[in-house]
Amino acid sequence: MGNKVAAFTEEQLVEYQEQVVEYQEQLVKVVQLYREVAAEQGGFPRVVTRDMAASYSVPYQDLDALTELKENPFRRRVCEVFSEDGSAGLTFNEFLEMFSVFSESCPRDIKVQYAFKIYDFDGDGFIGPNDLEASVKHLTHELLSNDEYETIVAKVLEEADVDCDGRLSQNEFKHVILKSPDFVPNFHIRI
After folding, report:
1. What count of other Cβ atoms lies within 10 Å of the Cβ of residue 103?
2. What's residue 166's pLDDT?
3. Residues in the chain where the model's pLDDT stays below 50
4. How far is the C-alpha of 93 from the C-alpha of 50, rounded, in Å?
5. What's the CA gap between 60 and 8, in Å, rounded?
6. How many CB atoms lie within 10 A of CB 38?
7. Considering Cα of 49, then 53, then 55, then 58, what sign does the dihedral take?
8. Inter-residue contact 101 to 111 (CB < 8 Å)
9. What is the pLDDT, as a whole number, of residue 16?
10. Distance between alpha carbon 185 and the CA centroid of its chain, in Å?
């Protein structure tokens, strides 16, 4: 902790700024946050190469302690989705991508794509009954009865499953989620 962001050259900061949607001020905050999380692993190196930003990884147990993620019931699933290997540990580049997608200025369509991936627990390209149940359990902290979960899943499919195949495609999900005025403001992480 206490490391300065000056370990990145101006060229590296500009390159990362182009990859994310946020302004340089937000990028500096993300870099500082990653350095704090990486401190448990001996610290993010002071001089960071492009390869290092893509390979140095912080394990999920350290990410789980982040204040910015702590209250999100999907925090592990979010990290799994952004982690290329599915481990929920994140390289600096993956961490940066996560904060970019959850920024206020990220385009709505990109947010919808990632939301779909987060809710698609089994990764089959559809949100089926098991995915919906897992999502509702995350949201309710598993406090409902099995009958209540079944009712909620049935109602969601009744409302959103346009082709009646018992699961939601990306287009069906997008159609429903974009009707929600709360989606974009709530699909956000403040730093």
Report:
1. 19
2. 98
3. 1-5, 21-22
4. 9
5. 24
6. 20
7. positive
8. yes
9. 60
10. 14
